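Same chain as my last thread, 118 residues:
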Amino acid sequence: MAIQRGVIPPNLHFNEPNEYIEGLKDGSLKVVSEKTPFPGGVIGVNSFGFGGSNTHAILRAQPKHPEEDKVVEKPKFSRVLLYSGRTKEAVQNIFNNVKEHVDNQHLHSLLSNQVRNT
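reply #2:
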């Protein structure tokens, strides 16, 4: 979402830097604490879990193609798309977006985690 909207959202519940992380103390690392413009390009995302699980991902926005926003012909068969969220409110938000953009196949592909070949 940050890549698509061009804005890096602030971290929730950040108050002060951890005194044991040297990069935060010396200013070479910064916690995003307010909305920050995203200039584009490739980004790295790291997640360090309390239970010891570590996850790292490198992301790059897929180029937007003008035909993605076009309304396409409705399929002649039924489709089942799976949408998921961590809370009831999150799923309801997805449903609201789906209703609002019912003919946007690119949006449905992104929301249902389908991979599109380009």
